[in-house]
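Q: A reviewer asked whether we had any structural model of the full assembly, not just the individual parts. We don't, so I'm hoping you can provide one. Inputs are below.
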Amino acid sequence: MTAARMGRVALAVVGLAALAGCGGRVARPVEVNSPLDAKLTCTHIHSEAEVNSARVSDLSGERVNARNNNAGILIMMPLFVDLSNSEQQEIKALQARHEVLRKLGDEKGCPL
Amino acid sequence: MKTWMKAMACAMGVMSVAACASPARMNAMIPERTAETLIDESSPLAKAISIASVSGGKETNPMWVSEVGNPEFSEALRHALATHAMLADGKGKYDLTATLIKLDQPILGIDMTVTAEVEYALTDSASGKQLWSERVNLPYTASFSDAFLGMERLRLANEGAIRVNIEALLKALIARSKTLSQLKGQIRLVVAMAPGRVSR
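A: Here is a predicted structure for the entire assembly that you could use as a starting point for your response.
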């Protein structure tokens, strides 16, 4: 193998390695503490807690879909396997937010 | 450009748009609360709105492009109203209808901009009289750094377009309720100051 050809192969390998695991998306975690928290009413707190549980279910479903897609992508386009843990980061943020809401509910006399 | 480089660029281009399309996620279409969209319990909108109908959405064909379906849009709208303390328990004082008129999507792109046009209408649930309607037309751009795969980026752009649209709806509703409250206050003042009015 000539030096030029080896260079090309090395470039291609580096390029492909840079792209590996490029599937998925950036995480958009919720704000755990908001400057508006002090102004929230009991309705806000209870509704947000309910909505957040639905969001966790939605995100868990997304992870299951991503796993299923990964099985196909692994065969067709292995570089684009979704190795991100965006959903996990978002679920963790929602769980942390739930704790904040629980405390807020207790403080305002409307426990969750 | 050498042939192998052309082939690689072409393959990368194809791969960046290839993948199965998935529908917009309810979770990603709920706008966060802001100082502008926070209402208190005295607001006429507090626990006053129920969703009458949501239409115009399309089901996603996995072999084609990501779309916004009616069930996801409806759920996102319901949850957005709930987190903003506007959703009524059961039948509300006002009925909200939302019609997704158009979802303007790009075919290809590095940064993908989707524009959602939605017509909202608020009616008095007791009389059925339409009180307010507005068409909200707003774009949202998902950048290359948000997702590498084109299909994923398009879905994020769809979700963002609906999210900013719902946020605009909430702001419009709050602005409208404030105008109405001020108007009612002025009417009360004029009536109170009317000549010959005897206070009891």
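A: Points you may want to mention in the reply: The longest strand of chain B covers residues 112-124. Chain B has a mean pLDDT of 86.
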